[in-house]
Predict the structure of Alpha/beta fold hydrolase.
Amino acid sequence: MLVLLAACSILLTGCLWDAERRVDEDALDELTDSQFYDVPASSADGDAGSVVKAAPILSAPFGSSAWRVVYRTTDVNGSRVLASAVVVVPDDPAPAEGRTVVSWGHPTSGAARPCAPSLLFDPFLMMTGLHEFLAAGYAMVATDYPGMAVEGDSSYLVGVTEGNAMLDAVLAAQQVADGLSDRVLLWGHSQGGQAALFAGQQAAGGYAPTLTVEAVAVAAPAADLTELMDDDIQSMPGVTISAYAFPSFSAAYAGRYSEDEIDAVLTEQGKKALDDLTSLCLFTQGQQLHAIAKPLIGNFVSSNPSETEPWTTMLEENSAGASPIGVPVFVAQGLADDTVDPSATEDYVKHLCGTGEHVEFRTFDGITHLLAAEVSLPHLLPWFAGVLSGEPQTQTC
């Protein structure tokens, strides 16, 4: 018993020391955050996936090393743009074949530059499964998506741009960390689920050809934007999601539609509030955001965007499923989700099955949107391991 108590005491002391170390080093990291991301727009010139700059993160989780990276990627219109990411790798020696890389797509945090997860006091906070993946020997890379942290146009819910950024983040990670293989697992939640699905489609279509995407996993994905808009437009999430999409769609579709055409769906109150809404971050400025959005519920748009051009076209083009993925897909959904309706995810799974994809679909009673990714981890980790080892996978379809 004394030995057990002593061991527990040592473990607790170690955990507290690591927590204190990370708080201190997070504070030091934060002093250099804004300076690190200030790079000239001309830095985008170069190969997709190449690194513009990288710097170690002092507050990496115990037993790992981490870096912030600014890298080049490709937007939906084929132009080179800048993005940023966090790379985390276990400190123990990599296997001879190299580490498989988990590329993570984060859920909605906002659409403005300061809303990037890597700018949080703890830049690892939104990397769901980070500790589990590190313990299993994986490396993990988390893009902020273009337009966040680094100056540039927002890419919120622009599927191809987000998907390319997830793939190019892996190429960038290979340049800053030793021992990373070309094998990639794509993993995303909500907005990041849409990004991961598009990354899978882009890889299947030949983007980032040096990478081998082995599987795609998503939790409560924003897969079908048309259905998402139909379900949410008369709610707080609907006002927030649609507001964040205005600047990104305006930038992505500037060559096809004018800003006036895109904004025409807004009410006068919606137009007045749009700049304030899009400047606020969901997790760090949620109270301010909700104070503006709440009075606009039912009065933000004058017609349903999913039934009004050019939004009908833009939502359709940024919904997953128009091209194949071709590798196993894991889909998780909480049945108490009031942001991504479970029926929308079920419809997307039916679509995948109808196109011949190999799907593992898991649902969780009583689980809300926020928790969908976390609760799926005990199922996802062995599923990933089985895919990588070539074990036969169960089939929902």
Summary: The longest strand covers residues 64-74. The chain has twelve helices and nine strands. Residues 1-28 have pLDDT under 50 and may be disordered. Residues 229-316 form one domain.
